């Protein structure tokens, strides 16, 4: 069987295109793209004329069948999305899974990814984090999801649309607490790249007062729930209980 390359592309700055990704896009027999028109512009800029087929969530079954057939004939295919790393809040998971099940070799070509770019420059703890992708668009479902995350000690990373950023930040204040440290990373790698840092309440205010902060592409990072410190009296109480049980 052929090989499936999962290829990252820039999240704004074309200078972030990885040389190995360019080589692979040149060399493969077929490129499967989330939006062939959008990716067509990138390929043209790179001087690549490899044939393209669409691969997105609608019609996934049909499209993946065609791609898997190509792979089955021993040909090579590269999967790309509109921006960043495929499968990260982007299509690709089902295709990669089916390809592996058929014994196709799957090769990652790592590169830009908004969540990693935001996290590594945010100043929030990066040793453990939970990527939550997009929260539900409806407020009720969003609050429920946030409330389920309220005790998570890991840094939380979300993708958000500019139209919803203010509503989401105010739901975060309500569900995670006004004092929680957070960072809003906007327009990463582009001309207006901005990092806003503060408590959730402060971020909410900054975004409300400046409509520019409600534009472009956004990652929201929230520090994890503070580890609950056990008081000395509680420690003594537990110790006393244990002592009673000891022989
Ligand atoms: N696969 C992409 C990746 O690797 O980051 C993510 C695709 S997802 C459909 C698009 C979302 O990613 C945007 O709504 C935004 O939350 C985030 N994003 C993508 N590019 C970004 C950028 N340059 N700056 C900030 N956030 C970005």
From TrEMBL:
The cross-references to PROSITE patterns, in alphabetical order and at most eight, read: RSMI
Q: Start and end of every Tetrapyrrole methylase domain? A: 4-203
Q: Which principal EC class is assigned to this enzyme?
A: transferase
Reaction(s) the record says it catalyses: cytidine(1402) in 16S rRNA + S-adenosyl-L-methionine = 2'-O-methylcytidine(1402) in 16S rRNA + S-adenosyl-L-homocysteine + H(+)
Protein localization:
Cytoplasm
Q: Which domain of life is it from?
A: Bacteria
Q: Which UniProt keywords apply?
A: Cytoplasm, Methyltransferase, rRNA processing, S-adenosyl-L-methionine, Transferase
Q: Which residues form the signal peptide?
A: none
Q: Name one GO molecular function term.
A: rRNA (cytosine-2'-O-)-methyltransferase activity
GO CC annotations on file: cytoplasm
- What EC number(s) is this enzyme filed under? 2.1.1.198
Q: Which SUPFAM superfamilies match?
A: Tetrapyrrole methylase
Q: InterPro entries from the xrefs? A: 4pyrrol_Mease (IPR000878), 4pyrrol_Methylase_sf (IPR035996), 4pyrrole_Mease_sub1 (IPR014777), 4pyrrole_Mease_sub2 (IPR014776), rRNA_ssu_MeTfrase_I (IPR008189), RsmI_HTH (IPR053910), SAM_MeTrfase_RsmI_CS (IPR018063)
Q: Which family does it belong to?
A: Belongs to the methyltransferase superfamily. RsmI family.
Q: What does this protein do?
A: Catalyzes the 2'-O-methylation of the ribose of cytidine 1402 (C1402) in 16S rRNA.
Q: State the protein's name.
A: Ribosomal RNA small subunit methyltransferase I
Q: Which organism is it from?
A: Porticoccus litoralis
* Record gene name: rsmI
């Amino acid at each position: 069987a052929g090989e499936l390359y999962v290829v990252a592309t820039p999240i704004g700055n074309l200078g972030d295109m990885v040389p190995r990704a360019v080589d692979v896009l040149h060399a493969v027999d077929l490129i499967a793209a989330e939006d062939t028109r959008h990716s067509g512009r990138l390929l043209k800029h790179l001087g690549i004329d490899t044939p393209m087929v669409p691969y997105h969530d609608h019609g996934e079954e049909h499209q993946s069948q065609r791609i898997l057939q190509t792979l089955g004939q021993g040909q090579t295919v590269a999967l790309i999305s509109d921006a960043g790393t495929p499968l990260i809040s982007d299509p690709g998971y089902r295709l990669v899974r089916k390809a592996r099940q058929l014994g196709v070799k799957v090769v990652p070509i790592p590169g830009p990814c908004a969540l990693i770019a935001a996290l590594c420059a945010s100043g929030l703890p990066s040793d453990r984090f939970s990527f939550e992708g997009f929260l539900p668009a409806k407020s009720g479902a969003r609050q429920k999801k946030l409330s389920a995350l309220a005790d998570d000690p890991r840094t939380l990373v979300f993708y958000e649309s500019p139209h919803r950023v203010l509503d989401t930040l105010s739901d975060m204040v309500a569900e995670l607490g006004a004092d929680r440290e957070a960072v809003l990373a906007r327009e990463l790698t582009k001309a207006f790249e901005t990092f806003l840092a503060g408590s959730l309440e402060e971020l909410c205010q900054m975004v409300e007062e400046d409509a520019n902060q409600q534009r472009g592409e956004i990652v929201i990072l929230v520090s994890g729930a503070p580890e609950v410190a056990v008081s000395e009296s509680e420690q003594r109480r537990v110790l006393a209980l244990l002592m009673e049980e000891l022989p």
